[in-house]
Amino acid sequence: MEKVSLIIPLYNAGAYFEEMLQSILTQTYPNIQLLVVDDGSIDDSAGVFYRYENELKSKLTEVLFFQHECNQGAASAMNTALPYCTGEYLAWVDADDWMSENNIAKKVQFLQEHPEFVIMRCDGMQIDMQNGKKETLAQESDKEIKCRFEDLLFSKTYCHCGCYLVRAEAFFSCYPQRQIPVSRQGQNMQMLLPPLSLGECGYLDEVLYFYRIHGANHSRSFVSFPQRMERVNGFEKLQLDILPHCNCDRETYSRMIREYWNRERMCLRRQYLQAVKNTLQRKEKHEE
C-alpha cells in the first residue's frame, strides 16, 4: 500500500493541536508517515505532541518530531521535514485544524483512480470560532476540473492545505533539492503552485477538512496599513521566487504578478487615504 507523508508545521498551537492529533489517529488510511516540526513554540505545543507520541507511533507507519530553537516560519518548518519524506503522496495540514476520518483514504483513492492528475483537492469547511458560522470553501467555479495555477496565483480559489494531496514524485521534480522558498507569508503558495502548474487539478466534492478561524490565526494577524503593505510586498516577492520552480512562461507571469500586486498596492493606498480623510473630518466636526 502506498505511503502518505503528512507534515505539520507547529507553532504555538497548543490550545488546538490535540484535536488535529486525534483526527490523525482516527484516519482510516493505514500507511501514514507523520512529520511534526515544532517551530520554536513557547506554549505547550511540544507537550501536546509528547502526550500523544506513543499512541501515534503505535498507530502510524512512522512518526518523526523536529524542534527549532527559535521561530523561523512555516516555510522553514516545511524545509526541515521535506528531506525526510518517503511517501508516494505528500500532504500537509495546519496544527489548529482537523480532518475527517477518511480524509487521507478518500484522497489517495481519488489519485489512484485518476492517474491523469498529479494533484487533487477536496472541499472543506471554514468555522469561525467566535460566532460559530460555518461555510464550505468550494464555490461552484472551484468544482470544475481545470488547471488551477493561475487561479491560485491571483487569489481566485482556495488554498487550504488539508484539502490537497499531491504525488510526491511530481512535487520533488519541481523541488529536486527538497527545499521551498522561505517566506514569512506562509508555505501554501510554495507547496501548491509548482504542482498546479503541471496540469489539471482533480476535485472530490466532499467536505474532508475543517479550517478553524480564531484570533491567533497568523494569516489574519495583519491589521495596520504598514503591515498590510508589507504583506502585499511579501507575497509579490514570494510568487516571483516560486516561478522558477513552475512549468510556465516565467516572463509573462512575472509581468502579470507585478501588475496584480501593483493594483493591490494602489487599492490599499486609496483605502488608507480615505481612512485618513474620514478621521480628519470627524476631528473637525468634534472641534466645531
Task: Provide mean pLDDT, rounded.
Answer: 94
- Taking all Cα atoms into account, the compactness measure Rg is 20 Å
Strand content: 15-25%
How would you classify the quaternary structure? single chain
Q: Would you count the extended β strands for me?
A: 9
Distance between the termini: 76 Å
> For the report, how would you describe the main beta sheet?
9 strands, mixed
Tertiary shape: globular
- Helices and strands, in order, run as EHEHEHEEHEEHEHHEHH
Portion of residues within helices: 40-55%
Number of helices in the DSSP assignment: 9
Class inferred from helices and paired strands = alpha/beta
Provide the low-confidence segments as ranges: none
Structure description:
- Helices cover 42% and strands 20% of the residues.
- It is built from 9 helices and 9 strands.
- Strands 1, 2, 3, 4, 5, 6, 7, 8 and 9 form a 9-stranded mixed beta sheet that branches.
Question: In summary, what is this structure?
Answer:
The chain has 288 residues and is an alpha/beta fold. It contains nine helices and nine strands.
What does the secondary structure layout of this molecule look like, with pairings?
Elements: E1 4-10, H1 17-25, E2 32-39, H2 45-59, E3 62-68, H3 74-81, E4 89-92, E5 98-99, H4 103-113, E6 119-128, E7 134-136, H5 149-153, E8 164-167, H6 168-174, H7 188-196, E9 202-213, H8 225-242, H9 250-287
Parallel strand pairs: 1-2, 1-4, 2-3, 6-9
Antiparallel strand pairs: 4-8, 5-9, 6-7, 6-8
Helix pairs in contact: 1-2, 8-9
